[in-house]
Amino acid sequence: MLSHTITPETLHDLLDSDQKPAVVDLRLPLDFLVHTEIIPGAQRISPREIVANPDMLSKDQDYVLYCTCPGDDSSGIVLETALKMGFLRVKMLAGGLEAWKQKGYPVAPYDKPFRLDVQ
């Protein structure tokens, strides 16, 4: 799995380059009550949605997944599932959103409506 992990520094550099990956925030709605910010440009998709409908991702696109779980649990589960399904251009942000913020990289308020389901 280490080869499918990316550091905040590397992601920051990629987001400023022509090789910009799609960034996916995997947090559940309850997580947004505590952490209300998101990496600018990231798309929030629940892990359950991706596992249930893998066609929402393209095998030709680079993706970086992140969450706020201790030990990157959600990102790790989705990464492992994606790799088994043949999505080889997927990486997990080491340390998730907290590591990104600790480096002083930008975050934006998450202001899209969401339902508070806990699944």
Automatic annotation (TrEMBL):
* Chaperone found in the keyword field: no
Q: What is the lineage of its organism?
A: Bacteria, Pseudomonadati, Acidobacteriota, Terriglobia, Terriglobales
Database matches in SUPFAM superfamilies: Rhodanese/Cell cycle control phosphatase
The record's listing under PROSITE patterns reads: RHODANESE_3 (PS50206)
Concerning InterPro entries, the annotation shows: Rhodanese-like_dom, Rhodanese-like_dom_sf
UniProt-recorded name of the protein = Rhodanese-related sulfurtransferase
Name any one Pfam family assigned in the record: Rhodanese
Q: Origin, by domain of life?
A: Bacteria
Q: Which UniProt keywords apply?
A: Transferase
Q: Give GO MF terms, alphabetically.
A: transferase activity
Q: Which residues form the Rhodanese domain?
A: 17-109
